[in-house]
Amino acid sequence: MTVGEIQRYKDLVGQRAADGELGELAVDLLRAAAANNGAWNGLWAGVLDRLRALPEETRGLLADELVALYHSVSEGSNARGHALTLVGILGRGLPGDRLSVERLKALDELGRQHGHWYGSHSAVLAEAELSCGRRLAPAVVAFYRRAALDSYLDGDDPVAVLAKRLTAPALNVGEPWAEQAMSDAGGPEWQDLLAHLATATAARPSAKWDQRARALIEAVGAEQVRATALPWLGLVGRPRTFPLREGYPTDPVNQTYDPYNANALRGLAWLLSLLPPHPGTARALGALVETSLKKVPGVGPRNPKVANAGVLALSRLDGEAALAELARLATRVTYKATAKLVDAALQKRAADLGLGREEIEELAVPAYGLTEVGRAERRLGEATAVLEVEGTRCLLGWRNSAGRTVKAVPAAVRRDHPDELKEFKAAVKDVDRMLSAQSERLDRQFLARRTWPYAVWRERYLDHPLVGTLARRLLWTVDGRTAGYADGALRTLTDEPVGDGAQVALWHPVGHEPAEIVAWRDWLERHGVTQPFKQAHREVYLLTDAERATGTYSNRFAAHILRQHQFHSLAAVRGWRNRLRLMVDDAAPPATRELPQWGLRAEYWIEGDGDGGDDITAGSGSFLRLRTDQVRFYPIDAPENWAHCCGGEYRMWPRDGAGPVDPLPLTDVPPLVLSEVLRDVDLFVGVASVGNDPTWQDGGPESRFRAYWSGYGFGALNQSAETRRALLERLVPRLAIADRCTVEGRFLHVKGERHTYKIHLGSGNILMTPNDQYLCIVPKSAPATPQTGYLPYEGDRMLGVILSKALLLADDLNITDPTILSQL
Question: In this structure, is residue 701 part of a structural domain?
Fold first, then answer.
């Protein structure tokens, strides 16, 4: 409304009051509230000032008129809410408690909301309740605290002023960890400690904050703080104890952290870093970082500031356990800001010790109690605990006093050694997490150009109690001679022992003859070695004639349709830098991977898919799908190319008058670099392509991708699918259903009783007789690979999907799933 119209309402207040027309004034005020949507901020605040200046008796009579109007309008109407607010404003200092029951109901409703409408004057409801000598419900306190943290409020806003007065409870209710903390915090020392946690509103603790925290720790006792507080972190991220009402259109407030409690979580991380080092503390902080970075649709990471606080706390902790968590997080964290903090923490540790970054990551891997490679035994009374690594899992087993293996934990161990049992179980989880992290780290070493002195390599890799379980399943070159570990020693293809050498490197199939590669595959099978990831069976991407013709770019993985968010996550895991494409007028660089050891940068050109239809973007405005284009290579210091997020030509924008830098001819790219980069891109397409989705047989939204889905889902095999095909040719004869299966061309053929089925070896999609009718079977999110005997490598999810479908279809008379039966 205009300034003049607002001035008219100001004048109306005085005129109506002077004439005693308070009923009419009450109606006018509700009209004004409707005009400003209940937001009495800005110039509207002057109207309220006029009301507050009225004589006490007049205000009382006007409040009574508003009470009458409140009861005369329909329940749930905006007018009722406006009347309730105005009564609260007018009732300050008046005798009587008007609309108290209705006010409590409104406050209860606020307690179920995440935030409030700016300028709504909701604080007057709380002030009215407090002026009557009653406390606000904890959920209502939580609402005002959350509202006060909204960035648009200044310190003088009534909500912000009110929130400063609300000191109890110490934390906001609604989150399991906070409610447990308040339950455990008995006594004034604990209450002071919790209150101090909530003051952690900066990115880093000040010296004053730390000083106060140390005093509080001393008052409670460091060991008591650790024993009590660490279990709280295990509850972080659990579902809320009561849901909050989500906003429009979808505001996933129930999946993120309460912002007030998030400050306290940050303070708790800082506080724990001031305690004496303990493996449990480092473990809990590492888990907090990962929990806080879990993605929430439409939001991104749950709470990066809490994750960053966890990393800072680990960097402040001394000891092997904290360094190990930092090294593990370095392989797991993909959120850019947090990853930078992890990197900086490791760089600092490395500099303090006079080591390189790679060395500190190697030295950071603890043994977790393993006394030999992949194994440890410990006597607990009459029983013996056995920790043993099998593949990428750690198992805890038991032997009784007679030396016989037992399935359950002996009762005497539970009774007499509860602390040791707890530590063993924690060690199993630690080993599992670290094995996964180290497997990923090793898989990235092919492009690192690392070599190790032989003695150092044996200590950090081959004979390391934990890393050795992975290193002994890989192939290495010792002074240029390829060797694998079997029967207690490094051995050649002919099983001759390999003696000590000078330099060791990780073996890669690029540059080796096909016959040698096949021979090493046979060697691994002969010795029953399952590699932690593809190495001997690793796909090799050599230049094609088409790429020699294009010269500076590869179109091998162009013209695909990828699910953007899945691609984005995969790219981050593989060390690529990418920006989500939003449907806005903005530009972005391609997905890039920097290779500093080679002085190169790889680019994968992509654009948002906005090809008509309604199903284009997520609620956040990001494209659901991407279209792919070229792969190029540039010198690492060359300016980046940029293109519009919605598509268009990529162009380089040099600075300071410099000219554009040409892409490198593909013939100049080292074969190892070319192969590994194209393998990454093949992985992105193979996993994120919509052609892999069995529910898209109709071509997706508005059938726009029917041709692409059919072409990809049943077309030529990519390199990874060719590797899968070669493996299945050796694997199928060992299956229990071998007499019903054959590998032919692009398909695994399975003969059932109802039909014969063809499972595509790239996408896992199925055609069935008599006329190649499509059969839709949606696999579980993480199907287990069926027991098939020996497998040469781990980690091929699609292999598990194909074998699971084959076993199901070979026995198709016993299928009970109604969705599948309806198609048969």
Answer: no
- What percent of the chain lies above the pLDDT cut of 90? 41
Contact 458, 476 (CB under 8 A): no
Each residue's pLDDT tens digit, 168-201:
899 999 999 999 999 998 888 999 999 999 999 9
Question: Does residue 534 lie within any of the structural domains?
Answer: no
Residue 184 in any domain: the answer is yes
Residue 448 and residue 437 share a domain: no
Helix (H, G, I), strand (E, B), or coil: what is residue 103? helix
pLDDT of 242 > 70? The answer is yes
Q: Which of 362, 364, 389 is nearest to 461 (CA)?
A: 362
Q: Token pair of 769, please?
A: 């007789």
Q: Are 534 and 524 in contact (CB under 8 A)?
A: no
For residue 787, the model assigns a pLDDT of 58
Distance of alpha carbon 469 from alpha carbon 473, whole angstroms: 7
How much is the pLDDT for 702? 61
The number of beta carbons lying within 10 Å of the beta carbon of residue 129 is 20
Of the listed ranges 207-211, 415-419, 742-746, 776-780, the one predicted with least confidence: 776-780
**pLDDT digits 0-9 by tens, 713-761:** 888 888 888 888 988 988 888 888 999 999 999 999 999 989 999 999 9
- Torsions phi, psi for 27 (to 5 deg): -65, -45
β-sheet bridge partners, residue 626: 562, 608
Going by C-alpha positions, the residue among 549, 661, 561 that lies closest to residue 616 is 561
On the question of pLDDT at 403 being above 90, the answer is: no
Torsions phi, psi for 374 (to 5 deg): 75, 15
Of 425, 241, 440, 192, the C-alpha closest to 334 is: 440
Contact between 793 and 720 under an 8 Å Cβ cutoff? The reply is: no
**627 in helix, strand or coil?**
strand
Using CB atoms within 10 Å of the CB of residue 441, give its burial: 0 to 12 exposed, 13 to 18 middle, 19+ buried.
Answer: buried
Question: What is the extent of the structural domain holding 206?
Answer: 176-357
Question: Domain check: are 586 and 657 in the same one?
Answer: yes
Which of 719, 559, 697 has the alpha carbon at shortest distance from 631? Answer: 559
Describe the crossing of helices 22-35 and 3-19 by its angle, rounded to 10 degrees.
160
Write out the H or E segment, with its range, that includes residue 192: helix 188-197
Asked whether the predicted pLDDT for residue 613 surpasses 90, the reply is: no
Confidence bin at 223 (pLDDT 50/70/90): very high
Residue 504, helix vs strand vs coil: strand
C-alpha dihedral over 342, 346, 348, 354, to 10 degrees? -170
pLDDT digits (tens, 9 = 90+) for 198-222: 999 999 999 999 999 999 999 999 9
425 and 448 belong to one structural domain: no
Give me the residue label for tokens 């997520």.
Answer: 618
User: Are both 50 and 152 inside the same structural domain?
Assistant: yes
Q: Which of 185, 154, 159 has the alpha carbon at shortest distance from 170?
A: 185
If one counts the domains in the chain, the total is 6
User: End of a domain among 688, 723, 741?
Assistant: 688
Helices 259-272 + 176-184 axis angle, to 10: 60
Distance CA 697, CA 700 (A): 7
- Over residues 251-256, the mean pLDDT reads 79
Per-residue pLDDT at 667? 95
**393 and 256 share one domain:** no
Cα torsion angle, 565, 571, 572, 573, sign: positive
In a domain, 782, yes or no: yes
Report the mean per-residue pLDDT for the chain. Answer: 86
Q: 192 and 338, same structural domain?
A: yes
For residues 330 and 450, membership in a common domain is answered with: no
Per the structure block, which two tokens stand in for 527? 């010795």
Q: Are both 552 and 505 inside the same structural domain? A: no
Range among 390-399, 414-423, 542-551, 619-628 with highest mean pLDDT value: 542-551
Cβ-count burial 350-368 (b if 16+ within 10 Å, e if not): beeeeeeeeebbbbbbbbb
The pLDDT assigned to 249 comes to: 45
State which of 119, 138, 165 marks the end of a domain. Answer: 165
Q: How far is 623 from 583, CA to CA, in rounded Å?
A: 6
